[in-house]
Amino acid sequence: MAYDEDLAERVREALAAERDRAEKAMFGGLAVLLGGRMAVAVSGSGGLMVRVDPDEALGLLERPDVGPVVMRDRPTRGWVLVAPAALTDDDELRGWVERGAREARRAAPPARGRRPRGGGQR
């Protein structure tokens, strides 16, 4: 399923002032990265994946339009999925996007390059 282009454009508008913003196709949707760290993603299955403080995630999951991000049959720590119904209001969307941006800025820098599999050099 393709992601919601209108939602993607609204996310772009909410992050227009960010200089280090990049977009990347991921998870059947569109991820938005700040400084190489994923902040939010417009989900291909609907809604918005948002990076959150892991200590706040349980409280956020009590909201009716917020659910866990599940990857490989397991909830992903520090991420929530906000349903499309909760994103119709621009101020509400902006609040979620700003939360994701704040957490992306606080996250550890992304790893540069990958280590070879199988124990490294021979």
Automatic annotation (TrEMBL):
Alphabetized GO MF terms: methyltransferase activity
TfoX N-terminal domain boundaries: 20-103
Any one Pfam family match given in the protein's UniProt record, by short name: TfoX_N
Protein name: RNA methyltransferase
Cited InterPro entries: TfoX_N (IPR007076)
Keywords: Methyltransferase, Transferase
Biological source species: Pseudokineococcus marinus
Disordered: annotated span: 99-122
